[in-house]
Design a protein that fits this description.
The protein is of the alpha/beta class. The chain has 21 helices and 12 strands. The strands form 3 sheets. Strands 1-12-11-7-10 form a 5-stranded mixed β-sheet, sandwiched between helices. Strands 3-2-4-5-6 form a 5-stranded parallel β-sheet, with helices on both faces. It has a two-stranded antiparallel sheet with strand order 8-9. Strand 4, helix 10 and strand 5 form a beta-alpha-beta unit.
Length: 479
């Protein structure tokens, strides 16, 4: 049987497109727009960035670029395990935070029924999905009080097994399962997605006999959606993970060229970089399809954690990084758009659009005597949301505001695979342009280390001492 993602014609039909017309002077004017010459003037820098990407890839440092190929080997195991557990569990709960959660949420929102957890028919026998991506005690307890533990499997996701939020959730849930169902049932109610060779979680998984899936050592959390971090929950929820990887592979093939004008990941990274250098440091992602709203959330971590850095590779203090902002069309036309239209010239708006929605809903006619309402009748909601995006795009352009559009022919696994991979490669390329390490997160680690020290983790006594000796707050400034 030939799958549709193996047909060249279908793949080309499903190719996502990047439209950057509204980043250039012809559309937004000379004051804010770029010229092709401006881009081409960076050619030496762009060539060096491409070469650095290729060298790092060959050296095994860019594991996310390998995933469309290497993860094919474990797809069968993930699918068979998900199918085996399908009738046994009604609830699938992810215990993870940041990169261990955001990709799964984005995939679920995009590819599953909008009310998946509430619609048994739409689930087709697959379990409901819950993602505990925060340690707010009220939310945590509320979910655990709601679920029947006997019908629930928990996927603990932490590469190091030292993530305080994830491991604290695991300790709580494991204790509840052991007390309610018995120690002998613990292993069957957990999956561990972690490092194969190092860290605390793999030790626990082996000790407990918990089923494990492994995160490649050269793939960081925010780049891990196409590893078992995202693929295992997707498989449990009936998402076609082969097609997801096929989409990523297709985008990898498209982006092999060093021609900036033919490489969407490189071109978008370059224009976003130029915009930041020109004082437009706010990178707004605004999907005009509800299913893609959580892609903006995932993108925020990818862009912020990768590019927000104090030092460059030479150790010089540079304090760089564009600020990612999430928005949603048409919702945020009624909240943020005023700022985007008439506020500071410090933003680039990226629209995410879809050509063909899964559903086609017609607006009924009515109230013919009220022209301000009756004109809507006979149109479709598909037309309405597309028109609103086009109108917002035109209004921004008329106001000389930089914007670009990424369009998906439809939202499916193949187009989502392309989208994730394009943004990941775009981020890596941008890191080269900024001359920073896009794959570490020292600022995040500092906050984690303070937490470890305050809570008494061995080896972090200095962090606790620093916290205990911090400056006292002025009570007069607390009113």
């Amino acid at each position: 049987m030939v799958n549709r993602y193996q047909e060249e014609g279908w793949k080309e039909e499903m190719r996502i497109k990047l439209d950057v017309n509204n980043m250039f002077v012809d559309q937004v004017g000379k004051k804010n727009g770029f010229t092709k010459e401006k881009v081409n003037d960076l050619q030496d820098k762009l060539t060096a960035a491409h070469q650095a990407i290729q060298e790092a890839k060959e050296d095994g440092q860019l594991g996310f670029m390998e995933l469309p190929y290497t993860q094919k080997t474990i797809i069968k195991e993930m699918k068979e395990f998900a199918e085996q557990k399908k009738g046994e569990f009604k609830n699938f709960v992810v215990l993870g935070i940041g990169g261990s959660a955001l990709g799964t949420i984005a995939l679920h929102t995009a590819l599953n029924h909008s009310y998946y957890n509430l619609n048994e028919e739409a689930r087709k026998g697959h379990p409901r999905l819950f993602v505990l991506d925060n340690v707010d005690p009220t939310r945590l307890k509320s979910l655990l009080q709601t679920l029947d533990l006997e019908e629930t499997i928990f996927n603990v996701i932490s590469k190091s097994g030292g993530t305080a939020e994830t491991m604290s959730e695991f300790l709580l849930v494991r204790d509840l399962v052991a007390k309610e169902l018995g120690e002998d049932k613990v292993a069957n109610h957990f999956i561990a997605t972690t490092s194969e060779d190092t860290g605390n979680l793999i030790k626990i998984a082996k000790q407990e006999g918990i089923k494990t899936f492994y995160i490649p050592e050269n793939v960081g959390g925010r780049f891990s959606v196409l590893t078992p971090v995202g693929l295992v929950p997707a498989a449990f929820c009936g998402i076609n993970i082969e097609e997801l990887l096929a989409g990523a592979e297709y985008m990898d093939q498209i982006c092999k060229t060093d021609d900036i004008w033919q490489n969407p990941a490189y071109l978008n990274a370059t224009l976003q970089y130029l915009a930041d250098q020109a004082g437009k440091s706010m990178s707004v992602m605004m999907p005009y399809v509800h299913g893609l709203k959580d892609v903006a959330d995932w993108y925020r971590q990818l862009w912020a954690e990768s590019l927000g850095k104090r030092e460059n590779r030479a150790g010089e203090v540079v304090n760089v990084g564009p600020t990612p902002i999430k928005a949603l069309g048409a919702t945020d036309q009624h909240s943020q758009a005023q700022l985007y239209m008439e506020g500071p010239y410090d933003k680039v708006i990226t629209f995410l659009t879809v050509d063909n929605h899964e559903e086609d809903v017609t607006i009924p006619g009515g109230y013919s005597e009220i022209s301000g309402v009756s004109y809507l009748g006979g149109h479709t909601f598909n037309q309405l949301i597309k028109t609103e995006q086009s109108a917002t795009e035109l209004a921004l352009t008329k106001n000389q505001r930089l914007n670009c559009t990424i369009s998906l022919p439809e939202v499916n696994e193949f187009t989502m695979g392309q989208l994730f991979y394009m943004f990941e490669l775009q981020t890596a390329f941008a890191g080269e342009l900024y001359n920073i390490n896009a794959f570490n997160q020292p600022g995040v680690e500092l906050g984690k280390n303070y937490t470890y020290g305050i809570l008494g983790r061995e080896g972090y006594e200095d962090m606790k001492a620093e916290y205990d000796n911090k400056s006292e707050k002025n009570s007069n400034l607390i009113i």
